[in-house]
Amino acid sequence: MKTQFYILLSLKTPAGFETYGQFFLGNDRQAAYDLFNQLKGSELTTDHALLHIDLMETVDELPVRIRTMYCTLEELGCNCKLIAKGIFRLLNLKEW
Predict the structure, then answer these.
(1) How do residues 23-70 score in pLDDT, each as one tens digit?
(2) pTM for the whole thing?
(3) What residues contact residue 77 under an 8 Å CB cut-off, 6+ apart?
(4) Residues 45/95, Cβ–Cβ less than 8 Å
């Protein structure tokens, strides 16, 4: 089975972090890493880090968190735009 990459969007609640969104990135490890490296935010957590984005991959059909980016609401908006553009490029601008 091929490894798949995706991004999870989560927010902090009294019960812990809850996932509310997901972007599928496909099977290209380098493309997934390159896209995640463009995101705005910090990899260092603080008490005020209420939003976070996880780069995930499936290994033997099990989810594995690779990296986490903590961000503000404004950064999250920018990141969603970057992710949508990146996915568009991955899906539509492949070599013919």
Answers:
(1) 999 999 999 999 999 999 999 877 777 999 999 999 888 999 999 999
(2) 0.88
(3) none
(4) no
Q: What is the enclosing helix (H) or strand (E) of 23?
A: strand 16-26
- Among the listed residues 62, 11, 71, the one whose alpha carbon sits nearest the alpha carbon of residue 36: 71
Exposure b/e, 67-85, CB count within 10 A at least 16 = b: ebbbbeeebbeebbeebee
In the chain, where the domains are located: 5-92
Under 8 Å between Cβ of 50 and 56: no
Map tokens 């995640």 to a residue: 36
Dist. CA 24–CA 31, nearest whole Å: 12
